[in-house]
Each structure stands twice: as structure tokens, then as C-alpha cells.
């Protein structure tokens, strides 16, 4: 406690029940008044009433109508404690009034302003910046809200009760924790819609945006309706209010927020038109709309007991949105995309100084734990549970979960218990996935004798901060066997590994089969398999599991690039193996596009480090560029044919099928650009009718270092569009030749459009730089220094975003002593900054390790 660490072991229930909350807001930019009336029932005689509150000016406080005297309470920087002696023993009402200044709130947490609009963000602990309250997720209450303000649209959670000029009242009947509170007020217009639930209730839908943006909401609205229907059919969950509002806001720290009945979105993940959004933006918008909607049941109706349980709602909800996208689009392609992201970001986190369990047991600043481990690994764990109990078992467990825990604030233990009760299985060992950090390594060896194939697995999980010893995990390993002619002789079977070392036999096989192991990426582990190129090429050509088919090609590419980074030439066998994939018109274009995508430079650095080498960012960059050129040379004819054949005629549609064709076409373009000097890309840029092609062409030209005219033209055309300009900032840095990155970053930071207090714009520039692997890690240290300068500058303005962006430094220990020393100096410099936020100082402390 002394150093501000919050521990799971210290959890205690709140000694009061809040049975009703009534809030009155009198909005004014510099001085908003918030009156709160809380109905409280004491649950522990003699306990003081401790309320969280930060940056609040207390105007008055009264219990049962009687003003409190100065001796009745203690007011500090972090809250208000009313002494037990001043509290009735029976249920009572506490009324407070405070003043806050939304206009001055640049941290974008609590009540703040974005372009004249009032907006809130309360997860995780923003409500305490609005009023004095037990700001913890296990305190759930119905809310009644009255908003007074001279603005046309006044919104809060729940159902509308009444409204008039300058005021509106809302009532949310569903008990909720304060982090789900939301208020929005502004000059907004609605893109309307409606939905009839399975049981026949009419729900009004609205997407609220600033005037001028209403024609960019159609896709999000349709995605919302698909999500609502899917939750009914896949999970039996109906929406539970008369109205569902979504608001798009330009200044937002994260992607979106699931406030009850009033989701608030970063406008980037709502607004889309063919001219301004790419195929991948459309796909993400659909996924995020679904994610926030799905939280209505997994997060809101059933919430978390405390913030250590964050992955209870986030892992499950990510798993649900992934399943939804897999059904709306191409399932295997979605799975591959998810695994690419998991390995690139979560495995990276798990192998560095920020590694933590999906359910951590201590933190200083909870906002630092909205991580890929909590979200994406959390989702993988749910996927493993489903694989272990089967589809029907999973549905039974989820039915039980909703039945047993509706209206409650739960723990990971509650969650595992429903699976145990529904399936009769013991999940004690499985729980290690939740409470231990680190990515298990799974080594497999094969033995063939007397018509029997034996697979022997060995697992080990490396130490992570604070966890030196790791117990064996319960790992579902999906395996199939293929005959040498490509027929499947043993269909996918899930082997359950529970020991450190374990063998599994397949008997009665006439000829030695080829094993396809960890199909569909059945567990988030690093599979170590000594496999020759010929066997990988065989699986790339024949595996009946699409994930492993892609994986075989990916493993070939990775091995080839790792050798090239150490001076070898391109592997002819890999180049050969790509041929049949390119030529196979029966394969989905989106799948073929993924097969043409080489592992990223950061992933290669990760792989080299894992192999005990010191990655050299310049050599990795050169290897990747050389392999792209070699692929283009070897397959020029096939790629040209693809480029021509995959053109999508007619008006743009964001659906998976045309998007897959465009993805394949752009993958071919990126390769062909290495040969044609950018001629095709330049032509495509000139004629493109949609952002996917325009941006794909621009990116290819930037990578060639030959995009001056196009970059300028793009800026001229889109300078008035904030979302498109974010792309402009990002792409120039992410894709430019690495030697130019740090200097260009400095120049772009001087651009009058670099509005650094806007999180999207800040992320575009800094995220672009850190995505340029060799540029960020330039041996001069210029990238590191520039980046650290800006973290220091942003921290006092927006600590949350500064802290999140500091994760760019998490890989520093992979590199040579020179680079390590440079990063360490920057981390020390940040740490030594006076007045550093709790957010960034916790991150820097962990990063320094
Ligand atoms: N619960 C949201 C994510 C979110 C978390 C924190 C925020 O502010 C600090 C905002 C949003 C989700 O999972 O979508
Ligand atoms: Zn979420």
C-alpha cells in the first residue's frame, strides 16, 4: 500500500449498499455543477463512509437533509470520508454538490469537452472526477439523471423520461457500476434506425455525430443491427432498454466505451465512407460496434467485482466479437488475422518487462492494464475453454453464467465455476492461464514405429516479472494427420496436455503421416517443431486446416528471413512453394493475400531474440526488402496477372469478398512495386475511387521513397478531413525508408495540422514512427529521443495516452548494448521528469525492469 500499489488480496466488500442514485448536472464549460443524491444502506455497523473524489470543489454535503459540519468528515485530494459518528444506523440519503471544469479537462477522463460537446469517460476511474462516489465496479445502483444545459441534444444512460428546452431527464433501471455512467451534450445530429428484438420489442437506435458527419454512419448502423441479431441467436441475449444511443467523439483516449445504453465511440471507429475509410477500417468498425454492443451482457448486466477481474468482461467480449466477425466474414481468414495480432503484440508484451497475467494481482494505475494480454490473451483463454468443453458445453456454461450471475459483479473464479458445474470438469489446473504471465513454449518431437506415430510434447513457460516458477498448463492441442498424398487420415482431434512432458499415440497407420499440429491455433503457445522446408511446403500445399496451411507458409517465410538477416540469400524452396498458392484460383483471395504477407520486422526481431540472437534492425529491414524483391522477380508474371484479375469493378462495397480481392491485389502491388519503380502504384493512386486503393498505392510509394507528389496531393485533397489526415501522418512515418523516419517525424511535428492534444493525431504520428522498426530503433538514438521528448510533453496533458504510448519501448532488452544504453537513458530521463503522472511513472518503472 505504501508505494500506492493496489492488491487483489486486499479486496473487501463495500460496507454500504447504494440503492438509488440521482444526479443533476448544470452544464457550463468552466464551472459545471453536479448535485448527487445517494440512497445508502449501511451493511457494516460502525464503518465510515468513504467516497472517491478527485479534482472536485465541494460546495455542500448533507445527510438526510442536514448539512454536515467540518468535524463530520475528512476531505483529501482523493476523496471524502464521513466519520461513522456522523452516520445514521438506518438507511439514509447523502446529498452533495460539487463544481468541476470540463473545459480544463485535457486528460479526457471524467466530464470533458471535445469541440464544444460535453462528453464523459468513466472507465476505469473517471466517475470520481464527476462527483463523490464509491467508484468501484462492485457498487451497482439504478441511476436517474437530469441534465440542464443550453444545447440541443442532452443524453445519458437508460430510457428518456422527459425533456424540454435546455433540459432532459433519463432513467436507467438496470443497476450499474459508476464506470458505465455516461453523459453527452452538444449540437449533434442523429443517424436514426430501429430494431425489433426476438421477443418483439421495438428499440430506437441512434448514432449521434457532429453536423456533416451523418452520411458516414450507415455502415455502423447496419453493423449494430447485425450485432443485436447475432447476440440473440448465438447467445440468446436480447437488448433490454427502449433506446440504444451511440455517440461519435473526436477526442477519445481509446477505441470506444460500452456505457449502458449510451456507447461512446472514437469517431474513427464509427464514421466511414468508401472515399475515406479502408476495407480494414470497415472491418474494425463492424468489430468494435459489435464489441461494445456485446458488453451489454458481458460487462454491464454481469460486471467485474474489481479491476483485477477486467479480463472477465474483456476477454469474453473480445472472444464474442471475434466469433461474430468470423461468421460475418471469412472465418479462417479472421482467425489468421487474430493470431497475427496476438503474436505481434501479446507475445511481444509477454516476453518483455511489461508481462503480466490476464488477471494481474497488483497494479498502481489500472488504466495501464487495458492491455493486449487482458483483451487478446483473455479471448484466447475463452476459446480454449470452448475447445475443451465443446460447442454444446460452452453454450450450457454461458447459459448458466447469465442465469446465475445476472445483476452481479463477478470474478474469474465465478466464471470458471460455471464451466465446472456445466461440464463436470475440474479446471483447477486450467486456471494457471489466468493467473500466470508468459507464453508457454511447446516443443514437439515425433516417433514413427510399427504403424504408430507418437507425438511427444514438452512444455515450459519462461519466468516473467515477479513469477519465476511456472506450473505446467492445461493445453488443448488440436492435431490432424495427413497421408503423403494429402488425404486426411486422422481428422482434427484435441489432445489435452496437462503434464510438463507427455506423449500421445496414433495407432494403425499404414504409412507415416504428416502431422498438422496446433490446428486453428488451439492454444496461445509458441510451438517449437524441427521441421524441414519440404514438410512445410507440403503442409502449405495440402493441409486441410486453413490456419495451419497459412502457418506453414509463414514458418517458411520466417525461417528464410531469419537466415537472410544473417547474410544468407533468399531460400529457393520458399520461393517455389509460393507458386502453387498464387496460382490456386480456388483459394480465397483474402487467404492468398495473407500468404503473401511477410512477417513484420518486429516479429522477426522477436523470433531472432527468442533464438538467442541479437536482432539487427537494419539487417532485418534489408532482408525483408530483399525477399520482397526476390518474390516479385520469381513470380512477376503470376503477380501481374493477379494484379489485373483482382481489380474490382463497379461501386465500392465493404463486404468480405471484394475486400479480399482488393487485399490480394494490393499485396501483389506492394511486391511488383519493387520491380516497376512504382509505376503501377502511381497509376492506381491517380485513378483510385476508394480509400483502400488510394491508401494502398500511397503506402507502396512511400515504401519506395518515391511518394513526394502523391503525399502532397493527398494532403491537399484531405486536409479538411481529420480521420484521413491521421492516415497521412501515420503512413509517411510507418512505411518510409528507415533512415528518414526520425527526421521526418520532427518535420511532421511542426506541421500546423499536428494537433498533438488530439489522441488520434498523437497516436498517428508517434505510432507511425514506432511502427517503422528500423527507423525507431535507428542506432543514432534519434527516434528514441524524439519519442521520449513527446511522451514528456504529453504526460501533463493526457497521462493515459502518454502511458499507453510508452509501450513502444518494451522491446529494448532485445537489442545490442548500444541501443539498450540509449533507451535506458531516455527512460531515465522520463523517470526524472518532475511531476510525472502516476500512469507514466508506473510504466517507466516497469519498463526499466
Ligand atoms: N471498456 C472499453 C475500453 C475502454 C477502457 C478504458 C477507457 O478509458 C480509459 C475507454 C475505453 C472497451 O473494452 O471497449
Ligand atoms: Zn471491451
Automatic annotation (TrEMBL):
EC number, as in UniProt = 3.4.11.2
Which residues does the UniProt record annotate as the domain Aminopeptidase N-like N-terminal?
Answer: 80-180
Q: Which reaction does it catalyse?
A: Release of an N-terminal amino acid, Xaa-|-Yaa- from a peptide, amide or arylamide. Xaa is preferably Ala, but may be most amino acids including Pro (slow action). When a terminal hydrophobic residue is followed by a prolyl residue, the two may be released as an intact Xaa-Pro dipeptide
Listed name of the protein? Aminopeptidase N
Looking up InterPro entries in the UniProt record yields: Aminopeptidase_N-like_N, Aminopeptidase_N-like_N_sf, PepN_Ig-like_sf, Peptidase_M1, Peptidase_M1_dom, Peptidase_M1_pepN, Peptidase_M1_pepN_C, Peptidase_M1_pepN_C_sf
MF terms in GO:
alanyl aminopeptidase activity; metallopeptidase activity; zinc ion binding
Q: Which family does it belong to?
A: Belongs to the peptidase M1 family.
GO annotation terms (biological process): proteolysis
Q: Is Membrane set as a keyword in this record?
A: no
Pfam families in UniProt: DUF3458, DUF3458_C, Peptidase_M1, Peptidase_M1_N
Q: Peptidase M1 membrane alanine aminopeptidase domain location, by residue? A: 219-432
Q: Which cofactor does it need?
A: Zn(2+)
Keywords assigned by UniProt, alphabetized: Aminopeptidase, Hydrolase, Metal-binding, Metalloprotease, Protease, Zinc
Domain of life, per UniProt, equals: Bacteria
Q: Where is the Peptidase M1 alanyl aminopeptidase C-terminal domain?
A: 535-847
What SUPFAM superfamilies is this protein classified in?
Leukotriene A4 hydrolase N-terminal domain, Metalloproteases ('zincins'), catalytic domain
Q: What class of enzyme is it?
A: hydrolase
Which segments constitute the Peptidase M1 alanyl aminopeptidase Ig-like fold domain? 438-529
